[in-house]
Automatic annotation (TrEMBL):
Catalytic activity: L-threonine = 2-oxobutanoate + NH4(+)
Record's protein name: L-threonine dehydratase
Entry keyword Manganese: no
A Pfam family it matches: Thr_dehydrat_C
Name of the gene encoding the protein in the UniProt record: ilvA
């Protein structure tokens, strides 16, 4: 069973007057950067600051009277919970929402505000999977209906209303639509609608490089659990995609791309500092994908779904750090300093360029009386300053080792 364009139209009718249409804004910055005609679908401007109310409302609004009386439950790291809270407050259905302890405070507070007296929030478990297990147990015990974040045809049809709206907002169907992919609900909905209603539109699914679970599913011929993921792009860092979402993706064959987390951070900063848009990491995933070559004809009209804006301000320090590393402007080294007066001064004089800045200096351990390794972070003004820095290091008498971003040691600096 897959979702049809008709299912999405029915979802649009249900949502009418309840979940507002989000604006479609042209992005002069991304258009200039890419040579494409880029339009941002601003799901960050929804009441719940993401597209998630669409799928949640479409599901809750279809429950029978008995199901409504038994209530619903879900697990979420934040955005889906806001969608469910909104849907339940609007329909008067009780929800038990399970959040892992890692859920940012900003999201917890928004869930409570949106849900009011209809929503009971339980914060428990170290990971999303723990919270999901608790939600499943609650459903079995009480008969509450689970509201899946992506693996349900009603959720998928609701998310597909994003694409239905786009076709009413542009004079011609776009040449391409770029959407972020976590469990694949949004992608499956957009595909199901556009393949019927605008078959010539290219659809691109963008996954985080550190959690490319849809690419893995396509490789293996079915959903598989990724052993390790980078959880930074929290909305879209999913270990295993859904069965229904995978079926839609396999059937409609979108173009899939992976986007490095650092590039998402670069785009988040441009959105913030140039465009004045607060995007959360998953929200910036599709715009960041445009910075890679997607094989689109120059001048193509491209709609890019900016899917969410629930960012906690405390995350920007890590965003800046990851962006600098991605752009080759920040590097970390292990330097063996001889334990003698003047060693540090010599390092500064001989190795550091005039515009290079030390951002971190920490002795790791004083292993013996002769040398002590230190972790040194250096920020460059320009990427071109890197080669001369490395050359000066190789000429210095000190033993210096570059800490690669892929090295396990790197976790200590981020
Ligand atoms: C802002 C945002 N973008 C994208 C996604 C990925 O969504 P999906 O699971 O529908 O692929 C999520 C999921 O929570 C999200 O919150």
């Amino acid at each position: 069973m897959t979702v049809t364009a008709q299912d999405v139209d029915e979802a649009s009718a249900r949502l009418d007057g309840i979940v507002g249409a989000s604006p479609l804004h042209r992005s002069p910055r991304l258009s200039d950067l890419t040579g494409l005609d880029i339009w941002l679908k601003r799901e960050d401007l929804q009441d719940v600051r993401s597209y998630k109310a669409r799928g949640a409302y479409n599901l809750v609004a279809q429950l029978s009277a008995a199901e409504r009386a038994a209530g619903v439950t879900c697990a979420s790291a934040g955005n889906h919970a806001q969608g469910v809270a909104f849907a339940c407050a609007t329909t008067g259905v009780h929800a038990r929402i399970h959040l892992p302890r890692t859920t940012p405070r900003q999201k917890r507070e928004r869930i409570a505000t949106l849900g009011g007296s209809f929503v009971e929030v339980v914060v428990d478990g170290d990971t999303y999977d723990d919270a999901a297990a608790l939600s499943r147990a609650y459903a079995l015990e009480t008969g509450a209906t689970p509201v899946p974040a992506f693996d349900d045809l009603r959720t998928i049809a609701g998310q597909g209303t994003v694409a239905a709206e786009v076709l009413t907002q542009l004079p011609e169907p776009p040449d391409a639509v770029v959407v972020p992919v976590g469990g694949g609900g949004l992608l499956a909905g957009v595909l199901s609608y556009l393949r019927e209603r605008s078959p010539d539109t290219t659809i691109v699914g963008a996954e985080p490089a550190g959690a490319a679970s849809m690419a893995a599913a396509l490789d293996h011929g079915g959903p598989v659990e990724l052993p390790e993921i980078d959880g930074f792009i929290d909305g879209a860092a999913v270990r295993r995609v859904g069965t229904a979402t995978y079926d839609a993706v396999r059937l409609h064959e979108p173009r899939m791309v992976v986007v490095p987390e650092g590039l998402v951070c670069v785009e988040m900063l441009d959105l913030y500092q140039t465009d004045g848009i607060i995007a959360e990491p998953a929200g910036a995933l599709a715009p960041a994908a445009l910075r890679q070559d997607l094989g689109l004809r120059p001048g193509s009209t491209v709609v890019c779904v900016l899917s969410g804006g629930n960012n906690d301000v405390s995350r920007y320090a890590e965003v800046v750090e990851r962006a600098l590393v991605h752009e080759g402007l920040k590097h970390y080294f292990l330097v063996d300093f001889p334990q003698e007066p003047g060693a540090l001064r010599r390092f500064l004089d001989d190795v550091l360029g005039p515009d290079d800045d030390i951002t971190l200096f920490e002795y790791v351990k004083r292993s013996n009386r002769e040398t002590g390794p230190a972790l040194v972070g250096i920020e460059l003004q320009r990427r071109d300053d890197y080669a001369p820095l490395m050359q000066r290091m190789s000429h210095s008498r000190l033993h210096v080792e570059l800490v690669e971003p892929t090295s396990p040691l790197f976790r200590f600096v981020q």
